[in-house]
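quick one before i forget lol
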Amino acid sequence: MKQNILKVGTVMGLLLLIGVFFNCNNTKSDNKSQELGNIATTKETIDKPVVEYRKPVVFITGNDKGNSHFYDSARVYFKEKNYQIINGKYSIEEIISWMNKNATENPYGEIHIVNNNNPFRAMNLETVVNGNKVTAQTLQETITKGKLPSVKSKAIESDTRIIFHTNQLATNTNLVNTLKSAFITENKVPQVVTSPYYNIFGGAFSNHYLAQPYYVFYPTANSPGKVDLSKEIAKKYPEEKEISWYDALNNEKERYVGEPYTIQYTIPINLELDYHNSDNEIPHFVMQEEIMDFIASEEGLMKEVEKTTIPVEKFRWTYVVKNSQLIIKGKASALCVLKPLTKPYGELEHVKPDTNNKRLYAMK
């Protein structure tokens, strides 16, 4: 009996010693792993230094005309944020050249480009000095021909953000992608940030806010009247129940926070056909309907009209013949109802234009 007890005691002792041995080894292994982890973390920190970006730069790319205060108000807004304001740069070429000339060891973190564009026309911004206005086509041609300077690699990082404060630019995907390609370096691709809304600077209740646009069109100088236009726009946007369309079409400014109001502008289009080497005679028209029928019969002309997204019958058409060229000109008037974006809860106030908010801004 005593021998059995001794045997059991011996076995238990051995098991305890083995357990202690393994625990020591595991502790040493865990300590070693922790040391390796610390070394790896330290090495990673050394290999990837923190980038110190310079303060944001804002390019004011136009001048106000008439009663507009868009650019002046934007200048005041960004000056209050203590951003660096750059005036007098009216082309992509000048913007990139300024960026390269003023590049330092600290890359640009945010580059703001303020441009009061008409969504149905080219941007109010030149490709190069005294060059064509920016569209996806004109800018791509400029890039392909090597007319734009390349952004210096040290000027930007891959998380540099180029923020366009424009009207509905995010809805023009081709143009946004082309703008992005204009700022790419050899090994860095910046983010381009745009909004599908209108950017409003210098409002009565906010220095900067966004607004949802709604459109109705008519041939310039041939308005059917606000009553008929209000019925037409109501039919076009049946999901919008909060706007009194007739009141909005007769309202020119936001009189209380969130009140819809209307702005107006003209959209021109030029169509040309050269009959120099054609066996067909140059047509002559008497009525508007004849011009519209002719445009519909010419595939190339109809495609140009369709690019505007405005129906052909919403233009007032005229034409002239110069030598062997037929030049058809159209003008459409747009009434754009703007509904400011307001918070759905709490006190009535505008939604802050946060460029990190993916519901307000698209990031490419």
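fyi The two ends are 84 Å apart (CA to CA).
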